[in-house]
Amino acid sequence: MTRPVKYGRTQKGATLVELVITIVIISVAIAGVVGAFALISGRSADPLNQTRAVALAQIYMDEILSRRYDENTPVGGFPREPGCTINTEEGSRADYDDVDDYNEITDAVPENAEGTGLAADYAGFQVSVAIECAGDEIGLAADEAKRIDLTITDPSGQSYDFSVYRANY
Fold first, then answer.
1. How many Cα atoms are found within 13 Å in the side-chain-facing hemisphere of 42?
2. Distance in angstroms (rounded) separating the CA atoms of residues 150 and 46
3. Which Pfam families match (predicted)?
4. Phi, psi at residue 6, to the nearest 5°?
5. Does residue 99 contact residue 146 with C-beta atoms inside 8 Å?
6. Domain ranges of the chain
7. Mean pLDDT, 10 residues at a time, over the chain (169 residues)?
8. Cβ of 18: how many Cβ atoms within 10 Å?
9. CA 151, CA 52: separation in Å to the nearest integer?
């Protein structure tokens, strides 16, 4: 006679406690990853805005520095009347013919040299320009150079300041 073989019963699977612990561990890991992505995505616009602010500043500085020193300066520079004056002219950007005309542009929408808006490329940006006599800051007579201060404000409110000197050469 042969005896029937008894097979031991082994249960396979996970207990409820193991499932709950696994869910908690995965939840903590996902929360950490989502938090890191939120931090990264919140700052991802900063480098783009910085790059666009520098490009916009370059557009304005190239334009301003290509103009005459002041209204009385002939093409090519000297001779000029002594003294440094800032005479801002009213009118459109297309009429700006010397450095002084850009003075006191305040929180303006970006435009090109013809006065056409650049809102498509620089939506939310603002431009401010201030000009003052400052030759003594660079070792010249006070009336021989002007400092051009350009401030670009990006859509998030961050300001970027740029300064150059323009001498009457």
1. 6
2. 19
3. N_methyl
4. -95, 125
5. yes
6. 47-167
7. 63 82 92 83 75 93 88 68 72 81 88 82 92 83 86 92 87
8. 10
9. 13
